[in-house]
Amino acid sequence: MKFTRRDSTFERSSHERTPSPNVPLASGTLALDRWAQGVRFGGGELDLGALGGAQRIGVNLVELAPGRQSCPRHWHVKEEEHFYVLSGRCVLRSGDDRHDMGPGDYVCFPANTGIAHAFENPFAEPCRLLAIGNRDPDEIAVYPDSGKMKLRALDRIVPLPPQGLDYWTGEATEVELGDAAGDDPRARAARAAERIDREDEAREKQVDEDLAAMKKRLGLE
Fold it and tell me: 120 with 62: CB under 8 angstroms?
């Protein structure tokens, strides 16, 4: 199961280098890792931060191939992202808007703004960007187009719930302390399994409804 776009890498090179902190890196001499997923997503990436021994900040040289999108549209709860176009042209999708970007253009996405973003390259030449941001082990990334979210601390990608739950949902509030049925681990486990099944069914139903609505808006039905 894939957890990041890097799990779709088909040509890897940077992992073969040992991190070299405190000395310059000639990034122009290093090959990029190449990745692709289907016909829409793909490009190249060089994790400069990792090669330099960075612990808290991510610095990536990103190459967006012609006719490709950089990643699924998303926004971060805890991480801040910065992008600077080095060469070529691209189109930034930010919320419901689109912005043409070229060499020297810069954009920042502060954490927890709820503005989903991604880059597209509808042009004939590759576009190179410098991507910089903090790394948070407890990061949550939200993907509104596909109705999912990534929980880094739990190493899971899960459906985005259509609505929040009450604090007491699923708790045995009407079972008195010491009640045999309430304290039986097997009974508690069975109730928990039933609750999880119901919640999974509700989430799957909501995802199906959201996808159907999106297809309808895009004229795919």
Answer: no
Per-residue three-class SS string for the chain? CCCCHHHHEEECCHHHCCCCCCCCCCHHHCCCEEEEECCCEEEEEEEHHHHCCCCCEEEEEEEECCCEECCCCEEECCCCEEEEEEECCEEEEECCEEEEECCCCEEEECCCCCCCEEEEECCCCCEEEEEEEECCCCCEEEECCCCEEEEHHHCEEEECCCCCCCCCCCCCCCCCCCCHHHHCHHHHHHHHHHHHHHHHHHHHHHHHHHHHHHHHHCCCC
Is residue 80 within 8 Å of residue 134, measured between CB atoms? yes
pLDDT of res. 195: 79
Query: Could you tell me which residues are beta bridge partners of residue 69?
Result: 41, 120
Please check the confidence at residue 113 and state whether its pLDDT lies above 90. yes
pLDDT, residue 73, reads 97
Quote the CA–CA distance of 97 and 92 in Å, as a whole number: 8
Task: Show the tokens assigned to 111.
Answer: 């954490």
- 82-93-110 Cα angle (round to 5): 35
Does 47 have pLDDT greater than 80?
A: yes
Give the residue-averaged pLDDT of 57-80. 97
Residues in the chain: 221
Q: pTM for this one?
A: 0.76
Looking at residue 29, its amino acid is T
